[in-house]
Amino acid sequence: MRIAIASDHAAVDLKASLCEYLMELGHEVADLGPATADRVDYPDYGYLLASVVADGTADYGVALCGSGIGISIAVNRNPAVRCALVSEPLSAALAREHNDANCIAMGARLTGIDMAKACLDAFLSTEFGGGRHAGRVDKLSNPPA
User: How many Å apart are CA 60 and CA 54, to the nearest integer?
Assistant: First the structure.
């Protein structure tokens, strides 16, 4: 799979560890930055991540910041992207199964590396369930005027 990953300064170390982990699993990984822990604004990286998922350059996205909240809000501004903030594997799996999430967000100050890997494993190994969920997911990208 092609996976893009982006963070803010608070999550640079977690991002580096997850990039390595994903590559070890055989995924093609695009690290969208930042490269250092110098202060940056998470919306810039969230918007960039959303754009590469929305245009199909990446199959899935991983968004990281201190809490995961801010960057997930930025990613979700793109109507073609559904980013779920998760902290454990069940919510990561349900985000895929019920919501067809194409991005996952986590907080580096709240989620340790082993839990983050477990969340990624659950997210990437779960298929969208379709069925009764499909109409609801369509509404997420097509809100009423």
Answer: 9
